[in-house]
Design brief:
mainly alpha; 20 helices; globular; single chain; 569 residues
Amino acid sequence: MSRKTDDQVQPIEAAPPVPSATATVDPVVQPPASGTTSGKGGGMMRSSAIFSGMTLISRFVGFARDTVITGYLGASVGPAADAYYTALNFPNLFRRIFAEGAFAAAFVPAYARTLETEGQEAADRVATDALAVIATITVALTLVAQLTMPWIMTVMNTGFLDDPVRFKLAVVLTQITMPYLPCMAVAALLSGVLNARGRFIVSGAYPILLNLIMLAAVVPATGGPIQAAYAASWAVAIAGVAQAGLCWWAVRKAGANVRLSLPKLTPPVKAIIITAVPAAIGNSATQINVFISQNLSSWVDGGRAWLSTADRLYQLPLGLVGVAIGIALLPRLSRAVASENREQQQASMDEAMTLSMALTLPAAAALMAMPYFLIDALFTRGAFLDIDARATAGVLFQFGWGVPAFVLIRILSPAFFARRDTRSPMTFALVSVAVNAVLAIGLFNLGMGVAGIAAAVSASAWVNALLLGSRLWRRDLYRPSKAAISRLGRILLASAGLGAVVAAASLGRAYYEAPIADLLAGIGASHGAKEISLILVTGLGGLVYVALAFATRAITMAEVKGLLRRTAK
């Protein structure tokens, strides 16, 4: 290939009531409860609000971090950006398989069940033994990766081989960031302990440390892109230690006696590992998609940076909506399944579906209607050039139409996990990997470049979501009610209206951006016109969506008042 110049176990239907968990970037799981949905952690709305509030703060700080880093590193000019994003993504790849993915999905329900049935001392023994095992595994993996990184990089980033400077820098920076993996494994497990005890704030907030530490490290780096890349990479490793330390402090403050010990394969730990295997396979399948995307993008100068920048924006609705609602849904749905309450199962799924789409569809519409405007206003500065903004916008558009599917996967998967079925989601994830691999390679080589990689990711997500939904439909486990379908149609209509308005505003930027620039110039400011324009346009789009949502009764005032009352409790 020549270098281009463009980017569980079997299902147990009659099992005892055991809460489960999905794999997330920042795992937050509702504690087990009985009876109502408003235990210590509150109901679905309140739990979602807590997690989303923390995630929102993290995303804003993360945006500030990414804005600074893209300005320092650029994208297509020099090796720093591609090498840095390689170093940032590599430990995350394994983290999502071992730490915050399969192991967390198996540990959290096991710990919560032990806490409820056997008491705190027994639960703390489970957490202590599980912590020792996962820490040992990830430390060993980190050491192996450190020693074999040049060979790993040869396989994962074949496009770097004809650029020795880029290749060597990627190897060194990734060796610096790899200690982040065991730190995150510890933080994820301790976060699960907090969640099972009804403590959500630290679980949602500890990712903020990463962004703050990276900002503090990069801002003083005035020696050019290479120095900034080294500063950001060292900050990742330091932040991992700080995040694990914060979670350890919070767990001790919560009264849990989790200790450091030598690894022991006790029966509970063996059960966790056995339960985690299917989820690990499923998560590994997802990471194959990541591997394919990274390998292909390595053949394009700046390709890795374009993908990572677009990824930050499309992950925002997934983190704020899909993960938050999906995790708040799971314990509520688990209790309804255990009590065979079909009415509550239906109501829980309908509420999660309509609420998530009411927040996701307008976001997807905006990403597709004004991708260049978003990227240009947010990131084009310093070494991140207009050519980078246009390439990234093409990637963001392709991610945009996949956003609803990414969120639907988070909403539909708990219907399987609540029934202790992790095999079906694993199977569907494997199918989506095959779809992604074929489409990514095909579209990339047919001329779409890095945008083709994003299109393949979105298409494979829709395949996964449709397979999950069709399996639930055929088993009569969930079929959206007529009221929910009607509500979804009205939400789609309001989102289309938003998309039309912001698309028109994006095309007519010159008519209002120039006067804003002149006004700013009059007060001695040479920058800020495009940023202010974006704020005005997104504000206008939001008002249009809210007006259309109320006009079509996709949202009612009674529902808003009810949400405010519930989240205030």
